């Protein structure tokens, strides 16, 4: 069966360091992968999309990599700030359409 | 645009009662999705509409759940009768019609449903 795995344990890092979150998947051949941020009591917010033919994508302090051989995406936040504290979710399309299945998310805590 | 608007924000109801959740997608977005989020199961896709037509409702847990989209600017998710295990946060999301994944979803703020 299709599975998306994100580390369920919270990631605690010091302000200014780089946070790296992992998204692993099985039984998918995704054309793209998306990352979202969710704050408590709010809906997820779309951050980045990376396609299968893109190895890396950047947006300000965010960097996403996509390795279709390893079936893994890494999400990096450089120069992290306490305001980056949130839960980050990866999402993959279920099939050729645009229905997304979300991973369980990883909670990031950036301490000042 | 005010984004995806959901109402009510919170709903507390007694077991057996009917619950109706409402969603107004972003104008011009042709795709609408209903998700349910719990600690145990995360975000689960319930149903997907494209151009007001239900395309995939395989995530709807039981016949007690139904969803409609009578026009491009309004959708409802109804639970009748409600049960305590339906307690969750229900999200509505919309995106431009797309089969290539060029766009992300825009989520509403959710409805926190508690069935007692």
Structure notes:
The complex is a heterodimer of chains A (112) and B (116). Chain A has 112 residues and is mainly β. In chain A, 0% of the residues lie in helices and 56% in strands. Chain A is built from no helices and eleven strands. Chain A has strands at 3-6, 11-14, 19-26, 32-38, 45-51, 56-59, 62-67, 72-77, 86-93, 100-102, 106-111. In chain A, strands 2, 4, 5, 9, 10 and 11 form a six-stranded mixed β-sheet that branches. In chain A, strands 1-3-8-7-6 form a five-stranded antiparallel β-sheet, with no helix packed on it. The N and C termini of chain A lie far apart (41 Å). Chain B is mostly beta strands and 116 residues long. In chain B, 0% of the residues lie in helices and 53% in strands. In chain B, strands 2, 4, 5, 6, 9, 10 and 11 form a seven-stranded mixed β-sheet that branches. A four-stranded antiparallel β-sheet of chain B has the order 1-3-8-7, with no helix packed on it. Chain B is globular, with a radius of gyration of 13 Å. The mean pLDDT of chain B is 94.
Write the layout of secondary structure elements.
The complex is a heterodimer of chains A (112) and B (116).
Chain A: E1 3-6, E2 11-14, E3 19-26, E4 32-38, E5 45-51, E6 56-59, E7 62-67, E8 72-77, E9 86-93, E10 100-102, E11 106-111
Parallel strand pairs in A: 2-11
Antiparallel strand pairs in A: 1-3, 3-8, 4-5, 4-9, 6-7, 7-8, 9-10, 9-11
Chain B: E1 5-7, E2 10-13, E3 19-24, E4 31-38, E5 42-50, E6 53-56, E7 65-71, E8 74-79, E9 88-95, E10 106-107, E11 111-115
Parallel strand pairs in B: 2-11
Antiparallel strand pairs in B: 1-3, 3-8, 4-5, 4-9, 5-6, 7-8, 9-10, 9-11
